[in-house]
Each structure stands twice: as structure tokens, then as C-alpha cells.
Input
Amino acid sequence: MTKPFILVVEGDPRMRDRYQDVFRGYENKFDYHAVPSAGAAEWFLQRKPADLVVLSSTPLGIAGMDLLWQLRNAQATKNVPVIFVSTKEDLEEKIRALRAGADLYQTTSFNAGVFIAQIERLLDRRPIERRFSGLANAFLLLGHLLNRVVG
Output
């Protein structure tokens, strides 16, 4: 079984170093890669689909909220769990991020152990979501075929 792939989109080099420290010791559980910008994230996602995205509120080149919106509206990433990470403890930003489609809002002062547990939980939900998505697609196809036969 392949390890889940996590893409970190973070403009701050110190935070990218922090993520490296957080994921150290979990190489047997996750593959992870950090990129500094939305453009790099887009390029990377076209080549290797992510199982989870950790998205900074300040990647280089675009606002994190805008990139979140793009991820949620792209067919390839609309169901990929996203953890939105910000320096702000602002309740309004948290609400905006969650309404824009973030699965989790986290401040940069997170505890590494809790952060890893949250990632594991989000990744544990993926097979269930895939099964329901596949079942829904099968029913859509069946409905389409029935319409062609009957209609």
C-alpha cells in the first residue's frame, strides 16, 4: 500500500523548516513535499495528486484563501482534505476559511503531535469518502444508461 502524499503550500521558509521537523519521524507513514507558492503547488499537483494539502494563508504569489477556493473548484482537488494554517487567531478568518472549504483551520502555533493526529484523522476518512463517491458515480451512470434505454 502506498503512503499518503501530503503537499504543504507555505511561503515562509521558516515555517517550511518547521513542517520538515514536524514530519520527521513519520517518513514511514507519509510522503510529504513543501512548495512556496500557488504556482509551484499547481505544477506539483498536476504531476502527483495529493491526499491532503496543508495550505498557508500566505503562500507566495496569491492569497491562501484564493488558492483554497481554486482547490475546491478544481475537479482533481475538490475532495482533497485541506488544512488551512494562519498566524491569525481571528474568528472571522477561521469562519471564512471553513466556509471556503477548509476541512480544518489551524494556527501556526500548533502542537506537532496534535497536528499529526489531525492529519491522520483526515486521511482515515478518505477511503470512506472515495467509496461513497464511487457509489454515487455508479448510480449516475446507471441512471444515464436507463434514460438511454427507456427514453
